[in-house]
From TrEMBL:
Keywords: Cell projection, Cilium, Flagellum, Signal. Residues 1-22 form the signal peptide. Residues 301-371 form the Flagellar assembly protein T C-terminal domain. The lineage of its organism: Bacteria, Pseudomonadati, Pseudomonadota, Gammaproteobacteria, Chromatiales. Residues 24-109 form the Flagellar assembly protein T N-terminal domain. This is Flagellar assembly protein T, C-terminal domain. Residues 113-250 form the Flagellar assembly protein T middle domain.
Length: 378
């Protein structure tokens, strides 16, 4: 059946687990109880768990946020029409504090597998979120929001982007620095994508409180993100996310490092944005093939610089596409592909050995050659 859900967006950051068995996925989801509506929160938590399960199953998900006055209000989830959810089992539900937490199992069958890279985890460099709106950060002393938002985004990428392996670093990168030479160096260092983001708006809007109440204002938040494909030296995704919520100046001392900040309406809206970013990154990376480099050649075996962390397993049959760059007459670099089928025989966290049926199949490979890995049968 085609799954279509319309739920209130929620702030969630829970567990993502591997398949229980073939086509069965066990996930935990969470949603806040708003205005005492427990039933609505339960449905939102179930939707959150189902979306995580679908993403982990490699199903393409169309996830849209409904905006009202710039604020994300509703979350519409649609699985692609070729996929089927046969059964959902609600294992547990817990009502603690202001949240509903559910754990469920879902049997998800992709009827057509058109995504050849969904089983591999591509390395992604997460640069620290840049705090561009520093003047606005004085309200609430949010000068560490860049660091704290990066940590929150990293957690959401791990939860909602199973197609990538996140490497978060404590420095920011400017778009103008993403030159061909920098991209090549990052790729040589083992990265395949890099995610840049900048907070561009933290400003206050009109006052919403009465004169006898604590000072409350509308407060805005804007985040610009850019996803770069390092090997192809391309900007593959760019988006600005905007939201707003009520800001209570009396709680400003909490700071963005505290749980109190993230549980307030403004912190929850920022968290919703960061979660939306993670889901969009999943959609733009899940069908990309995993790229590796030949690091060693020993007779009929080659060592590659990708391993278990990137989703490879001993016994995997992989199709290796040798990619050679050469300058054409137009001055642009082009690629030449030569297919070879190998089998993974040994594996570690970030490296693997692959063997060919005969040594002659590898005679043309050299250390440093680039290969594209797609599991056979996908």
């Amino acid at each position: 059946m085609k799954l279509r859900l319309l739920v209130t967006t929620c702030c969630c950051a829970l567990l993502l687990s591997a398949p229980v068995s073939a086509n069965w996925y066990e996930m935990t989801g969470q949603a806040p109880i708003e205005q005492g509506d427990i039933a609505k929160a339960k449905q939102a938590a179930i939707a959150d768990a189902l979306e995580r399960a679908a993403l982990f199953a490699g199903v393409r998900v169309n996830s849209q946020q409904q905006l009202v006055a710039g604020v994300m209000q509703q979350h519409q989830l649609t699985l692609d029409s070729s996929s089927e959810i046969r059964e959902i089992r609600l294992l547990s539900e817990n009502y603690g504090g202001d949240y509903v937490t559910v754990t469920l199992q879902a049997e998800i069958l992709p009827q057509q597998q058109s995504c050849h890279g969904s089983q591999q985890k591509k390395p992604l460099l997460l640069a620290r979120v840049e705090l561009g709106a520093r003047r606005d950060a004085i309200h609430g002393q949010l000068f560490e929001l860049d660091k704290n938002a990066t940590a929150q985004l990293s957690r959401h990428l791990q939860d909602y982007s199973p197609a990538i392996v996140v490497n978060a670093v404590d420095y920011s990168l400017q778009p103008e620095l993403m030159t061909e030479s920098i991209n090549r160096q990052l790729f040589t260092d083992g990265q395949q994508f890099v995610l840049l983001s900048q907070i561009t708006d933290l400003s206050l809007g009109k006052q919403t409180s009465r004169f006898w109440q604590d000072d409350r204002f509308e407060r805005y938040f804007a985040l610009d993100v850019a996803l770069y494909d390092l090997f192809n030296n391309q900007l593959v995704f760019q988006q600005q996310y905007r939201t707003q919520a009520e800001w209570n100046s009396e709680l400003s001392v909490a700071g963005s490092h505290s749980q109190q900040f993230w549980q307030q309406p403004y912190g929850q809206k920022i968290d919703t944005v960061l979660k939306a970013v993670a889901k969009d990154i999943q959609q733009h990376t899940q069908c990309q093939g995993l790229l590796a480099q030949v690091s060693h050649i020993d007779q009929h075996q080659v060592a590659i610089n990708k391993g278990a962390r990137q989703g490879l397993q001993v016994g995997d049959n992989v199709t290796v596409m040798q990619i050679q760059r050469f300058a054409g007459k137009d001055g642009l670099e082009k690629m030449h592909k030569s297919p070879v089928t190998l089998k993974i025989t040994e594996i570690s966290s970030d490296n693997a050995w692959a063997s060919a049926s005969t040594p002659t199949l590898l005679s043309h490979l050299q250390i440093g050659d680039l290969i594209s890995i797609n599991s056979a049968g996908l």
